[in-house]
Amino acid sequence: MTSIDGALLDFKRLDQLAQGNTSIHRLDPRAKVLATVVFIVSVISYGKYELTALLPFFLFPVFMVAFGNLPLGYVVKKILLLCPFVLMVGIFNPFIDRVVLVQLGPFGVTGGMISFASIIIRAALTVGISIVLVSVTGFPNICRALERMGMPRVFAVQLLFLHRYIFVLTEEGGRVSRARQLRSFGGKGLGIKTHGSLLGHFLLRTWLRAERIHMAMLARGFAGKFHSRHEYRFGGSEILFLFGWSTLFITFRLYNGSQLLGSFLTGIFP
Amino acid sequence: MHMADALLSPAVGGAMWAASAGTIAYCSAKVRRELDDRKVPLMGVLGAFLFAAQMINFAIPATGSSGHLGGGLLLAILLGPYAAFLTIASVLVVQAMLFADGGLLALGCNIFNIGFIPAFVVYPLIYKKLIGNNHSQTRLMIITMISAIAGLQLGPLCVVLETLFSGISSLSFSTFVLLMLPIHLAIGVIEGLVTVAVISFVSKARPDILQCALEARPIGGRPVRSLVLTFLLTALLAGGIVSWFASKNPDGLEWAIAKVTGKEELKGPEQGLHRVLAVLQEKTAFMPDYSFKKPVEPKKIEMKPENEQKKDNGKKLGTTVSGLLGTCMVLALAYLSGSILNNRKRTL
User: Fold this and answer.
1) pTM score, two decimals?
2) ipTM for the complex?
C-alpha cells in the first residue's frame, strides 16, 4: 500500500522536475530526444569487454543534470534501484568467463569481471540518460516530439491519454488496495479470490469511466488530437545542442577518451 | 522480464525497434480506420488501469510472497489484438520513460516480448483457436490458463534469444533457458489465475463485453500479407545495416587501442600459473553440467592470440549473423501469426 503511494509520489516528482525553466528545459524536445538516441546507440555499440571508453560518456548526463538543475541524489537513487534484471543476467559473467585479461599484482582480472563491469556501466548510462531526458523534457512533450517526427497520431494520443489517467487510476487503485487491507484480519481476504473480484470491479468501473470520458470529450469537440499551449521551434540553439553532442559522442566512440587522456598524462609525466 | 539496454547489441535492438515500430504504425492505422473511436479513450484508460492493477498485490498461500497481474492477455481478450497491442506498447513506453523499467533501445524488444506475443501469437493462435464457438465457463477458464502460461513461456524465451544474439552476456543458451523458463512457469500460472478470476468476473457481470470482443471481425487477407512483407523488409534492412555498422566500428577501435597502448603485452599472464588455476577452477566449478562450458572455453583461448585481421572477419560475420538471426526470428513469428489469421478469415 505504501509502495503504491510512494511510487505515485515518485512519479509526480518526475513530472514536477519537467516543469523547470532552464536553458535545457527550453530546448525543443526533438533535439533532446535525438541527442539521447545518438548517445544510447553509441554506448550500446561497444564490444563486450569495453570499459574505459565508456566512462567519458558520463559527461552528457552530468551536464544535463547540472544545467537542467536536477537533484543529483534523486537521479542516482533511481539508477541504483533499477537494474535488477541486468544484475541477474550479468552476475554470471565472472563465473563463466574466466580468462585472465589483465594482471594487477596478485589479482588476475578476468574477462568476465570486465564484461560484468561493462554491463553495469552501460546500464547506469542508459537508465540514467532516460531518467534525465524525461525530467528535463516531460513525458507529454516527448510524445509530441515523437509525433512530429512521424509516430502515428493514434499512438501519440494513446500515450498522452495513458499519462493523464495513470495519476487518477493509480490513486483509485491505492484506495481500493487500502480498503481491502483495512478489512482483512490475519491475512484473510488478501488471497486470489477477493483479488479477482476486486480487480474485476475496478475494471468495470474503469470501463464505465472511459465511456463517460468519451462522451465528455465529444461534447467538447474532440477530433482525434490533443492541442498543446506551447509550440516549440527547432532553432539555432537546438541545432548547436544536437550537433555538438552528437559529434562529441561519435568522437568518443571512435577514439577512446580515457585512453587518450591517460597516454597524454603519461606523456607529460614519464 | 523487461529487457535492458545494457544487454543488447545495436543490431538486435535496432531490428526489434524497426519491427515493433512497424507493428505500431500498422495497428494505429487499423484502429483509426476500422474501430469505433470509443475505443480511443477506452485504450488510454485501460492502460492506466493496467498500471494501477499491477500495483495491487495478492497473497500467494503457503509461500509468503505475493503476485500481481501482468495483463497482456487480459487486454487482448477484452480489446482484441490491435487495440491491445497499442495499449500494451504504450504502457511499456511509459514504464521505460518514467520508471526506467527496461531501456529505450530495448523498448523494441520489450514491446515484442510483452505486447506482440500475447496479442498476435497467443491470442489468435491459442486462445481464439481453442475457444471456438463453445463459450462455456470451464472451457473459457482452462483456455485462458493455457494461454497465459504459453505467453509467459514464449516471452522469456524471446528475452533469452535476444540476449544471446546480442552477445553481451556470457550465459549459454541452456543455462539461461533453465534460469528463465521455470521461474516464468510459476509467474505464468499466477498470471493465468488472476486473468481467469478477472475474466470470470467480467463474464458474469458484463457478458456483453466479452461477447463483443470475441465476435470482432477478423482482419482482411491482403493487408496482412503486405504487412508481413513490409515487416520482413524493414526488419531485415534494419538488422543488416545496423549490424554492418556495429561490426565495423569496434574492430577499428580495437585496432587503434592496440596500436596506441600495445595491449597484447598485457595478456602474458594467461600462459602461466593463472592459466593452470583457471583450468583448476573450471574443473571444480559448482555446476556439474559440463557440456556447455567446454565448447566456450577453448574457443576463447584460441581467440585471444589470433591476429587482428582474422578476428575482424569472424566478428563481423558474427554480428551480421546475429542481426539476421534476430530479424528472422521476428519475421518467422510475425509471418506465422499473419498466415494463420489469414486462414481463419478464409474458413469463416
Assistant:
1) 0.71
2) 0.79
